[in-house]
Amino acid sequence: MDPFLSFKIGATALRVQRLRMNLIASNIANAETTRTPEGEPYRRKDLVVAAVPVMRPASFKNVFEAKLANTLEGVVPVAVVTDPRPFKVVYDPVHPDADPKGYVKLPNVNPVEEMVNMISALRAYEANVTVINNTKTMMLKALEIGR
Fold this sequence. Notes:
The chain is an alpha+beta fold. The chain has three helices and four strands.
């Protein structure tokens, strides 16, 4: 077994959670953006994540054990997708982006939902940092035993 596998798994999770937090921050920052280069309001973005094996040396033993155990060790971002939910529509006839009837389309971003997602991403990030730190501590203690 690779003693550094915990570090590899934790590192993949940290990268994904960092990307997730960046997307959430972008969603919050654009919660009032009524016009994008595409000509419509900002659409909320979300991250699709997949579990994948951590890259190991391609020996027969490693491939055989991975297939036998059917284990997935790590995560990677697969895609950034836009939320298909409809835009919010409010009546504001003086807004520059109002239609002829006075209605304005606002982004489909819910700040409360984004804050909950941010807390979730932050907790997942912290948990993975803790795993990495605990693994490091255990490895150092194992080295001390050998002295």
